Amino acid sequence: MKRWAKRFLARGVFWRQLLRHAVLNAPPYTEPVAIAMWSLLFLLWGSGRRGVIRNLAAIKPGSWMVTNFLRTYRVFWNYAWTIADNVRFKEFRTLPDWRFVGLDHFRALHEHQGGAIILTAHMGNYDLGAHVFSATSDRRIVMVRAPERDPETQEFESEQRGRRGGESLRVDFSARTSDLAIDLLHAIEAGELVAIQGDRVTPGIGSIDVEFFGKRAAMPTGPFALAMASRVPIFPLFIIRRGRRSYALQTFAPIHVQRRSRNREDDLRPAVEAWVKDLETVLRGSWHQWFAFEPFYDEAAA
Amino acid sequence: MKVVRERADARWLPSRHRFALFKLLAWTRFRSSGPKPQAGLALGIDRDQSAIENYTVAAWIMASASCFTFALLDRVLLSAAAAVLAPFVAAAVLQVFVVAPGFVKAWRNRDNTGLNSFVTITAITVTAIYFAQSDQWVRIIAWLFLASLAMNAIASLVTRLLRARFAADEHDLLA
To answer: Which of A250, A288, B92, B174 counts the most CB atoms within 10 A of its CB?
Structure first.
């Protein structure tokens, strides 16, 4: 495919540029109509649509295909609002409304001395959540995320981040696995918070197979191995969109990873399973917020 | 950006609304509801923060624009086809108003939402004035749209008089 044509693929840079253009130009009262239309258009994105439908089939077993198709539209609708809110925050510093759920655990995270790991999922507005956290705290956050698949999109996002990014938030990409682990270990030792998404395994990243919504699924072990090596707790934290410009920040009890035996996987497994339990709890109520556009399980292996 | 913490009634602050009519309604609700503390809540103060206002205005503008588009398409197409196409054409035309000014190079990297809002409302108002003079059913929609504009204009005079009280209420919550 020609380079210019790649810009218009679902993950291409054109849509990011168009979104920024829309945020800078669309009066807010035209947004619901625009987002409804563009979400409908993105249902044409076959692999994304099929990925969400298959994930929903596991989260909501026994559902009709047509019901899951309509649910997929709801996922796309929420995703569109979420990324628009994110761009609006970057451009205008407009904050949505926040409700803190699991306030005691959130306070524990805020008051925790030394480094810690925030484990989150591809849900709601994790980008905005990290920005809000870094703005309300004097702690520095290092956010680890998977790089964009399209190089032009990655370049655009890096440029936007560089233009608007603050000192208290640093973004690292999980593609450079070799030095990243050491960098993160140093960050934790320096008392910084490391935010990682723990619901998707990218190529080259260590994983462990667990039961997730009744299917065999691979979960990344990186965050847990990091917690074990640095002896810090993991705080599961989810950012869930509740409505227009309204989010809930749900924090769960910290997960501790301890070295108890010679078998590393045996030591990591209870922590990964505790994380999966929290993730399942959140996804049962907020399945429409899980922006996982690839199936989390292999149909043949499940 | 200003944020009110742990007060659920702050959602009715006029400063969280854009249109004068909604500012007045929200303020009436704010005054009648009394303080409502809620732990773990943080509400941003921005004129476009109200979801009720946003969805109501979006629905109102979309419905009016769809009716006007239907009235135009009905002249050249079968009524059933015009009815199906009207909402999509209206939505597309509304987006043209929004997207077009962004193609002016000097305006590309700045906040044009205020300018585009003015252009959008003006365009629909002109269309409403045109249809208000017709003898078709759509004139009722046109008059309703113009009436809502007039009501908002009157409400904006009242909100000007109440500006100091709005600011005082906001200040109390932020303190």
So the answer is: A250
Q: What is the pLDDT of residues A37-72, one digit of tens each?
A: 999 999 999 999 999 999 999 999 999 999 999 999
Nearest to A94 among B1, B11, B39 (CB): B1
Q: How far is A52 from chain B (nearest CA, A)?
A: 26
Q: Where are the beta strands (DSSP E) in A75-227?
A: 97-101, 116-120, 141-145, 169-173, 193-197, 207-212, 215-220
Q: Is A27–B98 a contact, with Cβ atoms under 8 angstroms apart?
A: yes
Q: Is A120 helix (H, G, I), strand (E, B) or coil?
A: strand
C-beta separation of B101 from B93 below 8 A: no
**Are residues A103 and B102, on separate chains, in Cβ contact within 8 Å?**
no
For residue A93, give the 3-state DSSP assignment. Answer: coil
Residue of A32, A93, A95 with shortest CB distance to B55: A32
* Single-letter amino acid code for the residue at A223: P
Q: Where are the domains of chain A?
A: 3-289
Cβ-defined contact of A33 to B40 (cutoff 8 Å): no
Q: Which residues of B touch A89 (CB under 8 A)?
A: none
pLDDT digits (tens, 9 = 90+) for A82-101: 999 999 988 888 889 999 99
Pairs of CB atoms within 8 A across A/B: 101
Name the residue of chain A whose CA is nearest to B63's CA. A33
The answer to whether B139 faces chain A, any CB pair under 8 Å, is no
Please state, in angstroms and as integers, the Cα–Cα distance from residue A235 to each residue in A186, A203, A262, following that order.
19, 25, 25
Place of tokens 């205020």: B114
The reply to whether A61 touches chain B by the CB within 8 Å rule is no
A14/A21 Cα distance (integer angstroms): 10
Contact residues on chain B for A35, CB-CB shorter than 8 A: none
What whole-number distance in Å separates Cα of residue B24 and Cα of residue B12?
A: 10
Instruction: Name A293's Cβ contacts closer than 8 Å, sequence gap at least 6.
Output: A47, A48, A51, A52
Range scoring the smallest mean pLDDT among A137-151, A253-267, B81-95:
A137-151
Crossing angle of helices B20-33 and B138-161, rounded to 10°:
60
pLDDT, tens digit, for every residue of A257-274?
A: 988 888 888 899 999 999
Q: Where are any strands of DSSP class E within chain B?
A: 3-7, 37-44
What is chain A's mean pLDDT, rounded? Answer: 88
Which residues 59-118 on chain B approach chain A with CB closer than 8 angstroms? 59, 61-62, 88, 91, 94-95, 98-99, 101-102, 109-114, 116-117
Residue A140, both tokens? 């520095």
Q: Which residues of A2-15 are buried (b: 16+ CB within 10 A; e: fewer)?
A: eeeebbeeebbbbb
